[in-house]
Automatic annotation (TrEMBL):
<dbReference type="GO" id="GO:0046872">
    <property type="term" value="F:metal ion binding"/>
</dbReference>
<dbReference type="InterPro" id="IPR017896">
    <property type="entry name" value="4Fe4S_Fe-S-bd"/>
</dbReference>
<dbReference type="InterPro" id="IPR047964">
    <property type="entry name" value="EFR1-like"/>
</dbReference>
<dbReference type="Pfam" id="PF00037">
    <property type="entry name" value="Fer4"/>
</dbReference>
<dbReference type="InterPro" id="IPR017900">
    <property type="entry name" value="4Fe4S_Fe_S_CS"/>
</dbReference>
<protein>
    <submittedName>
        <fullName>Flavodoxin</fullName>
    </submittedName>
</protein>
<dbReference type="GO" id="GO:0051536">
    <property type="term" value="F:iron-sulfur cluster binding"/>
</dbReference>
<feature type="domain" description="4Fe-4S ferredoxin-type">
    <location>
        <begin position="181"/>
        <end position="209"/>
    </location>
</feature>
<feature type="domain" description="4Fe-4S ferredoxin-type">
    <location>
        <begin position="215"/>
        <end position="237"/>
    </location>
</feature>
<keyword id="KW-0411">Iron-sulfur</keyword>
<dbReference type="InterPro" id="IPR029039">
    <property type="entry name" value="Flavoprotein-like_sf"/>
</dbReference>
<keyword id="KW-0408">Iron</keyword>
<keyword id="KW-0479">Metal-binding</keyword>
C-alpha cells in the first residue's frame, strides 16, 4: 500500500505515479492525521510512505502518526521523500522508526520537486515547476521499479552537513521557525473557508468568515498556497511571490 501526506501536491503526484507502475492501492493520510485516526491498516504488499521533507526529515506530524498506527501484513517499509534539494540524513531517523515498529527498513529515496516553502524560499513559476517535475520523473520511475521488484533502495551516504541538518538544525527548526504567527489575511479574502479545510492539524478557524490561526502549525503551506485569491500572506516574505501547487 502506498500512503502519502502532502501539503501542496508534490507527494500526491509522486505517489500516484508510483502506484500506476506498481499496481498498488493509494491512501491519502490527510484525514487520518487530521482526525488522529490510528486505526490499524493492512497490506500484503510492501508499505510505501511518500511525503515531503521538513528540515531534512519526514514531517513530525507524519512521524507521530506512524508511531501510533499499527501497519499489519507486510513488514517491509519504503520511504520516498520529495524535497527542494536534499533529505540530509533522514535515513538514520527512519531506520530508528522502523526498529520501533519492528518493520524492515527498505530505504529512503529522495525526489527533487518544485519548492513550496514560502516561509523562507522563492517558489517557481509554472513553467519552472513543470520543468522540475519533468526532470524528476525518471527518478520516480526508478523508485517505482525497485519497489515493484521489492529491491531495497540504495543507502545514501550522509556527509557531515547532512548529519548536522537532520540533527540539531531539525531540532531547532521547529521551535524557532514553525509557527503560524506570521500568517495574515488581506481584503482579497472571499471567505470560502478552503484554508481551514486543507489544514492537516485543524489549526484554522473562521471568525466572521476570515481565517484565524491557532498555535498548532506544521508549515505545510497548504493554506497560503491553495487560497484561490492569494489572500494569505506570510509576513512580508510571501508578498509578490507565486503560490505553488503541483500543476499535474
Amino acid at each position: 500500500m502506498i500512503c502519502y501526506f502532502t501539503g501542496t501536491g508534490n507527494s500526491a503526484y509522486v505517489a500516484s505515479r508510483i502506484a500506476g507502475q506498481t499496481e498498488q492501492e493509494v491512501l491519502n493520510l490527510f484525514e487520518k492525521i487530521r482526525s488522529q485516526d490510528h486505526t490499524a491498516l493492512h497490506s500484503e504488499k510492501p508499505w510505501v510512505i511518500v511525503c515531503p521533507t521538513y528540515a531534512w526529515r519526514i514531517p513530525r506530524i507524519l512521524s507521530d502518526w506512524l508511531k501510533q498506527t499499527p501497519l499489519t501484513g507486510s513488514r517491509d517499509l519504503y520511504f520516498v521523500m520529495t524535497c527542494g534539494g536534499s533529505i540530509g540524513n533522514a535515513e538514520v531517523y527512519l531506520k530508528k522508526l522502523c526498529r520501533q515498529k519492528q518493520m524492515n527498513f527498505c530505504g529512503c529515496f529522495p525526489i527533487v520537486m518544485p519548492e513550496n516553502y514560502l516561509a523562507l524560499f522563492t517558489t517557481p513559476t509554472q513553467d519552472e515547476a513543470l520543468e522540475c517535475i519533468r526532470k524528476s520523473e525518471p527518478w520516480i520511475d526508478q523508485a517505482a521499479q525497485e519497489i515493484r521488484q521489492e529491491v531495497p533502495f540504495t543507502s545514501i551516504q550522509a556527509e557531515a552537513k547532512d548529519k548536522l541538518n537532520s540533527g540539531i538544525v531539525n531540532v531547532l527548526f521547529y521551535p524557532m521557525m514553525v509557527s503560524a504567527k506570521k500568517f495574515t489575511v488581506t481584503d482579497a479574502c472571499i471567505h470560502c473557508g478552503l484554508c481551514a479545510k486543507v489544514c492537516p492539524l485543524n489549526n484554522i478557524q473562521l471568525r466572521q468568515g476570515q481565517p484565524q490561526w491557532g498555535k498548532n502549525c506544521t508549515h505545510c503551506m497548504a493554506c497560503i498556497c491553495r487560497c484561490p485569491k492569494e489572500a494569505i500572506e506570510y509576513g512580508t516574505h510571501s508578498v509578490g511571490l507565486p503560490r505553488y501547487t503541483c500543476p499535474l
